[in-house]
Amino acid sequence: MSHASIRQVLEGQRAAPGMALGRVRLLQPRRHAIDDSLLRAEDVAAELERLDLAMTRARGELAELRQRLHGALAREAQPFLDTHALILDDPELRAGLDDMIRRGRFRAAAALQAQRDRLVQVFRSMDDPYLRTREDDVQHVIARVLDALEHDGSSEEHRLAARLGEILVAENPSPAEVASMAELGLRGIIASGGSAYSHAAILARSLHLPMLCSVPGADSSLGDGDLVLLDGERGIAIAHPTAQDLGSLRQWQREQAARGRLPPLPAIPAQSRDGELIALYANAELPAEVAEARALGAMGVGLYRTELLYLRKQTLPDEDEQFAALRELLHVLDGAPVTLRTLDLGADKAIGTGLDMPAEANPALGVRGVRHALRHPEILRTQLRAMLRAASLGPLRILLPMVTLPEEMAAVRAHALDCLANLKAAGAQVPNVLPPLGAMVEVPAAALGVRALLAEADFLAIGTNDLAQYVLATDRNLGALSALYDPRHPALLRLIAGVAIAARRANKPLSVCGEIAGDPMAVPLLLALGIRELSMAPTRLAQARAAVEATHCAQLRALVPRLLRAGSRGEMEALLCTLGNR
Questions:
Q1: Which of 547, 542, 570 minimizes the C-alpha distance to 17?
Q2: Bridge partners for 340 per DSSP
Q3: For the segment 147-168, what is each residue's pLDDT rounded down to a tens digit?
Q4: Which of 363, 439, 517, 581 could share a disulfide with 534, CB 3.0–4.6 Å?
Q5: Phi and psi at residue 126, to the nearest 5°
Q6: What is the pTM of this model?
């Protein structure tokens, strides 16, 4: 232990609720011993063989880790693992290393270090902020090969095995790191950077791992082995907690145990103080998550991600496989409605699947969602046919991601109508009419052109996670920009208000399914703007319901003109404070 045992309280941003007690494990780059001495000519062949063995071992570790992950863990971590595998297999990287060893007489570790430094400088010089973040992947891959080269039992997976009962402290952990450690019993996460909207934070919430982010100095204030109480309820971490602190943990544990003995909550709308009914739905990707959401009072599933079927194997799922998965989902829902989002994978996340998607400089702005669907109608039609067959088993809607133009909606509707006609002709059990076909509003152009979009869409769902990063030009996974990524930014809320007004005038359903839907601080703002359907992670349902029940919608509506004129989030929240809505 490197710090004196004096109680210390660190404050941060709540990223995932819950409490945990554990020993600190700092995630720091491993320092490798690099021998800079030149090789003798007769040792070159043996050094090349050492490098080849190390790279083979590193590939094997990635493959083993990928096989261990399932469900939500696999969905979040696999794209990162596949990216690392691609870097390992890059012929230019290997050719450069071989050349340095053969001609420069570098030892393998020194060659790896030099290549890492060169590539890091290349990425840091790029103008594209997305590409600059690829530096982390290079660092991780080279560190893995250096570990394998030394072969001293200190590879990442071996180090993780010692992390049972520990709290990870890092600057900004990746979803792959969180997934790996969760497999081994990690209790919680404290990040000195990052954001509550990062992929790691979303994964932590789905795994019920308490997490704090944006905790200044966490990695310098806390030392390896320090006892720390992570309080994701209050947004603090307490190093060297006192008996009183531990008493609060035991009280929280008793409350959680009591909750577990309670019967499932009824699936009824939340009701505001003045009687307005707000529908609460869950976001999910697995039937197990749906069952949890139903027990917590969700009225159904407002966003069901279908990507998992494509991420599980290296071939495309056929119609029957997709139908079987949807049949299981509808069985769990037992008559409750579900909104199925069609495939939405960017080129960076499709690696290792049956999707033939060439690499892109910026996948977040590339061929994904409906853009990919219309370029590959055979994949879209297979998914639509499975969904149409499932529509005979329970109430469902079909939601299209990354819609920009109404013409995209019209094109997908034409495909869906044709699929429905073909299924009827073949004698399949399908509904007489198409299920509702909706558009996700996550592209600014869709929000600004919402009236034209509503002419083609039966309903809308605002995806605030992507909409926020596109409006604010801020990568939500980049810790350095966490202060700029603010889904409660006035500009974003003005867009949401415009969409809500247009949907209400068109008499078409509208929901919000981004992370702010379950944020108790954001719920009053969404209700003020006219949102009456919220879809969130199952773990957020209770606090969202409490936020609705503490809100007076009529009083909020009177504040809307002033809220929309506000110049900052602080000004908006100050207005809400006047009504006691915080």
A1: 542
A2: 304, 398
A3: 778 654 334 433 433 434 789 9
A4: 517
A5: -75, 145
A6: 0.65
